[in-house]
Design goal:
The protein is α+β, with helices and mostly antiparallel strands. It has helices at residues 2-15, 19-55, 59-65, 69-77; strands at residues 95-100, 106-112, 115-123, 129-136, 139-140, 142-147, 154-160, 163-170, 176-181.
Length: 183
């Protein structure tokens, strides 16, 4: 009986036109299940953060939701100075321009002599302002304001010649959560 079952199993496998396709399908199903699990975990974390954000009342409450100063400074310190923002690839022309991205966001800026100038405003697909960065001859200069939609926290980055030298984080009610200079 065991021999007959083994032979039937071999015949079944031989009947498959492409065993790799079957295995790839199973691997794909497993990968999709893993991806879906990660998505559910991320959605759950997002909901937990939003819940905590609704309960946050003081700068200390907000600070507990955000990465620590050391992590912010490390991320900024490892970031190179922003290069001059040119229009050489997009070839939009001079004047006020709107640049659409493949992921729904869009940016408004002014092109002057082939360089993005005055400002770079990034908007979410629904039209909500995500960030405003002042530009001088294509280089970020001064305070750049950013908004985190999920928590309402506002971030400010101070650019000096394209390099971030200082930052601040504000609660939705305008209270300063924390700030630091970048070493």
């Amino acid at each position: 009986m065991k021999i007959i079952l083994a032979i039937l199993a071999l015949i079944s496998l031989a009947a498959c036109e492409n065993l790799d396709t079957v295995l790839d399908t199973y691997e794909g199903m497993y990968a999709n299940a893993q991806i879906n699990r990660h998505i559910r975990q991320a959605e759950k974390q997002q909901q937990e953060i939003q819940q905590k954000a609704r309960q946050a009342k003081t700068p200390a409450d907000w600070a507990a939701l955000l990465p620590p100063k050391s992590a912010v400074n490390a991320a900024i310190k490892n970031k190179p100075a922003v290069p001059v923002w040119h229009d050489k690839d997009l070839k939009l022309g001079e004047g006020e321009q709107t640049i659409h991205t493949s992921y729904g966001r869009y940016m408004k800026t002014v092109i002057r002599n082939g360089i993005m100038d005055n400002y770079a405003d990034v908007y979410e697909a629904d039209g909500t302002l995500q960030s405003h960065t002042p530009l001088v001859n294509g280089i970020p200069q001064g305070w750049s304001d950013g908004y985190i939609a999920t928590t309402g926290v506002r971030t400010r980055l101070y650019y000096q010649d394209g390099k971030i030298t200082r930052w601040q984080r504000y609660a939705p009610d305008g209270q300063l959560i924390d700030e630091d200079t970048v070493p």
